[in-house]
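Q&A log
Question type: sequence-to-structure
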Amino acid sequence: MTGYDALRVAELMCRAYQADMENFLTLVVLPANKDTLIEAMDMARSCLSERGATGLWEHWLCEDIACDIHFSGVDPREIEHTLRNTLNDRPVDLYCAPCVNRQKRAIIADMDSTIVTTETLDDMADAMGVKEAIADITARGLRGEIEFEDSVRTRLKMIAGMPLSEVNACINRTAFSPGARVFVRTMRSLGAYTALVSGGFTLFTEVIADKCGFHEHRANELEVKAKALTGEIAGPILGREAKLEAMDELAAKLSITRQDFLTIGDGANDLDMIRSAGLGIAYFGKPILLEHAAASIRYTDLTSALYFQGIPASDWAADDWIDV
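Response status: OK
Response body:
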């Protein structure tokens, strides 16, 4: 038997053993916190053992950064709740769930403060000198204190007259969140359908979707006259309900169910799609989202969404991946 054959046999045996386990617990840290991960794993083993879990098979997804512990016999929700309290704000992201249907077949991602680092409307406001006033409205909307549609209309009126040249400059300054492109491109390379669905604007999503590797993008279309923004939306506003509708439309198109989706976002506008998907992730989410999300990323980056699905770093697409 060659060395490659031996590795392949070992891999298949590991997968067979993993398949016998009912649940998994994933623990993830940033590279600088590898010592914290070892401590968290010790806590997790104790937590599982004390509650009578069986199996306790460990599988590294990335050495020193992400590890699975597979187990049976205990409710994963109880384990996650107990362990999160035990960790006491240590910088560890975790997700605990049944193993069934773990790797998802489609993703829907929010754009602002999720796939990109900022709120793009706030960035436009900054270029127009009205960021402070607009940012407060943005924050209230993300917390669910005001209706999203109202917040969009109010904020857009404050940047009416902004030249398209300034908008394009904002687009060029927009930065991806850490791990965003690897996350999207890996999912696509593994056969998942990828959609960027945003309450932002198509002028941004068109560029971001192309650079990140999404199959499609959906967002609001800004009304433009004389090469400047009018402060109005061309058509109905894509908000919270529209994101859920997008998931159902894609499910019908792809012949899959809501349970086959991974959705990810940060604010109240993402709530319906987050709590309706098979795996809804709050990315540095507002409290209203954290209450309902199946999982959350609080300390690490968007590649944790891959680890949560059991996808090891060895299977990731490169940051400069190109679809051929």
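Response note: Residues 133 and 243 are 27 Å apart (CA to CA).
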